[in-house]
Write a structure and sequence with these properties.
The complex is a heterodimer. Chain A is α/β, with parallel strands linked by helices. Chain A contains 13 helices and 14 strands. In chain A, helix 5 packs parallel to helix 7. Chain A is globular, with a radius of gyration of 25 Å. By secondary structure, chain B is mainly α. In chain B, helix 2 packs across helix 5, helix 3 packs parallel to helix 6 and helix 9 runs antiparallel to helix 10. The longest helix of chain B has 32 residues. The chains are: A alpha/beta, B mainly alpha. At the A-B interface, helix 4, strand 6 and helix 5 of A face helix 1, helix 4 and helix 10 of B.
């Protein structure tokens, strides 16, 4: 990646994903929750609560093999969106199709293409063992007895549930319950996975393994498309090729994590720690390339911090100049804008717009 | 067609195994149920001893009240299970929080409800059998007439109650609680369908209520077959009434159910309880 910038790399990746078939298509999706008996209450002159807009004109496509992230605060509409894709809720307006199949008119076929794992602990039967739960769900997917048991054994091994498999679901740790939910979603090897905070209750090691599994599924052949809801921004950056930020039911931004971050801050701070070079000489070296470097000395180490345009090609030149002047670079740290900053800005914008309207 | 039937049977089996495992996870419950049946049968016998020979000849089915109660209670519980298990299937999954996990599979809601109620029907079959078994083994209770005809009454009445159960399930999906069908049928059937005493004693006003309940015709038919030994021709009237209930209620309940599912999905309240 000497010529192409990092942004360029992501743009290329996005273009590559765009060429793949659309796995999930969401067009003009809106969902309005009307309080029950509104018309009756109105007819009797009783006060009527205002309807709640959960989603408003949401449109985007998710391509095959893409890990697509949904970010947003609690109550932003992520779960409603996921449930509409999963056919559990019907939209008020708009259309969702999964591999060109409408989720309302082709509900049964759509369900056979989807696996859903929610962070809801009560999604399995507490008095059955983890294994019994998985075998039950495999059977109601229509699997025969032996294939169901074989598939469940595979998943128990894959998700490291061997010790927990024979214990009642209610006795499992929250993390293991979460893994059972993911195992259930994977039972039929669905081409589309809807994962609602899949690592929420996992320990760091288990969470890392879960992320590896998700990445492996997305790059498998045929690839699995993942619609991932998460509050873990590091996880989203690590896994997702694209992210949609939802705020109060509307999509505020869509793009690659890096692309979104760069909209927040186009420059980044670079800090170098250097040995074997005097302060004045180092200042000259850096000033040839970057403006206003800040410098400090700590024993043998000279620390220099300067700003550069994200992905520019001058950093390499600065490093070579320092080397030529006899300096040794001990460490390099680059601080870019964070996805959290993007979320905060978009949320503030939404609140301002809401207040104005 | 065969493949669909096979998948349905697999699913039915899956639900029965699930519910069996859930039931045996509460070990004492099943034995206590059987024990309570035994207590009931013993009670029927000794209470009936007081009434033998004193029953008005206008009620020939009640000549031996022990046999009449022995048919009334198990069959009523059978009918009511056919009714309540359908709505309970939805409510239980909602309460446990597992409805979403089940509905994300390609199973449709009617299949889910029917499969979920299968274990309840198996259980009530076992307890009903226990009523007759204890009656026979301890108190020499004997029945005459065609068991096949009695089973026909049982099946048709259970189907009619199943239709009302579908209406009840529709209610549970939209309104969640306060089901009027459960209240009317649950309490009404025990009181007005001739389980405890002849419906003729109810008088004109309450007699109308009695005639509106399908359980009245089911119990009447079964008793006339098993106790009086009547044949198909003699019991054609209650049987035809039950079929009429079925013809009207089946399409109506399925139509209402479909509307309730669509509404719950639109409201997003399918999994709430």
């Amino acid at each position: 990646m000497t010529e192409a910038t990092v942004e360029g790399h992501y743009a290329t990746r996005e273009r590559e994903i765009d060429t793949r078939p659309v796995a999930i298509s969401i067009e003009g999706l809106s969902k309005l929750y009307v309080p029950p008996f509104s018309r009756v209450r109105k007819a009797f002159g009783r006060p009527v609560k205002a309807p709640v807009t959960a989603l408003q004109n949401v449109s985007f496509d998710v391509h095959a093999g893409e890990v697509f992230g949904l970010l947003g605060r609690n109550g932003a509409g992520k779960t409603t969106l996921t449930k509409i894709v999963a056919t559990l809720i019907q939209p008020t307006n708009g259309r969702v199709s999964v591999y060109s199949l409408d989720t309302i008119t082709n509900e049964k076929q759509v369900k056979s293409l989807i696996g859903l794992a929610t962070a809801e602990e009560r999604s399995s039967y507490w008095r059955l063992t983890a294994e019994e739960n998985l075998v039950f769900f495999a059977r109601i997917y229509g699997m025969g007895d032996r294939p169901a048991k074989t598939r469940v054994s595979e998943l128990i091994e894959q998700l490291e549930l061997t010790e927990a498999a024979r214990r009642r679901f209610g006795e499992l740790s929250t993390g293991n319950k979460q893994r059972v939910a993911v195992a259930r979603a994977l039972l039929m090897n669905p081409p589309i996975l809807l994962l609602d905070e899949p690592t929420r209750s996992l320990d760091p090691l288990a969470a890392a393994r879960m992320r590896t599994l998700i990445a492996a599924l997305a790059s498998a052949s045929p690839p699995v498309t993942v619609l991932l809801t998460s509050h873990n921004l590091t996880e989203v950056e690590e896994l997702c090729s694209r992210v949609a930020v939802i705020s109060r039911g509307s999509i505020r931004a869509i793009g690659s994590p890096l692309g979104l971050r760069s909209t927040e801050q186009s420059d980044e701070a670079v800090t170098l720690i250097i040995q074997g070079l005097e302060l004045a000489k180092l200042n000259n070296c850096i000033l040839e390339i970057y403006d206003n470097p800040e410098m400090s000395v700590d024993g043998l180490n000279v620390t220099v911090t300067f700003k550069r345009q994200s992905g520019d090609q001058m950093l390499d030149l600065a490093i070579r100049t320092i080397h030529r002047a006899g300096g040794r670079i001990i460490s390099i740290e680059i601080r870019t804008g964070k996805l959290l900053d993007v979320l905060e800005r978009l949320e503030t914008e939404t609140e301002t717009e809401g207040a104005m309207s | 067609m065969i493949r669909s039937a096979l998948i349905f049977l697999r699913r039915l089996r899956a639900f029965v195994i699930r519910d069996y495992r859930l039931a045996v996870s509460y070990k004492l419950d099943f034995f206590m149920r059987i024990f309570s049946v035994l207590i009931m049968v013993i009670s029927f016998y000794f209470v009936s001893r007081m009434l033998v020979g004193q029953v008005n000849s206008a009620f020939p089915e009640w000549e031996n009240p022990f046999l009449t109660w022995l048919t009334g209670f198990p069959f009523l519980s059978y009918f009511l299970t056919g009714f309540s298990s359908l709505a309970n299937a939805i409510r239980e999954e909602q309460k446990q929080g597992t409805l979403e996990s089940v509905l994300i599979t390609p199973i449709n809601i009617p299949t889910m409800i029917v499969c979920s109620s299968a274990w309840d029907l198996i259980q009530v079959t076992i307890t009903s059998f226990c009523y007759f078994f204890f009656g026979w083994i301890f108190f020499d209770a004997h029945f005459k007439g065609s068991f096949l005809l009695a089973i026909l009454f049982l099946v048709v009445t259970t189907l009619v109650l199943g239709c009302l159960g579908i209406l009840s399930a529709s209610f549970a999906m939209v309104f969640k609680r306060g089901d009027p069908f459960a209240i009317l049928l649950g309490t009404g059937s025990a009181l007005f369908s001739g389980v405890l005493f002849p419906t003729q004693l109810l008088g004109k006003e309450f007699g109308i209520l009695s005639r509106l309940l399908p359980t009245t015709y089911g119990l009447d038919g079964i008793r006339r077959v098993l106790i009086m030994g009547e044949g198909l021709y003699q019991v054609r009237e209650p049987l035809l009434i039950l079929f009429s209930f079925l013809v009207v209620l089946l399409p109506f309940s399925l139509w209402i159910f479909d509307r309730a599912v669509q509404r719950a999905k639109r409201d997003g309240s399918l999994v709430q309880f």
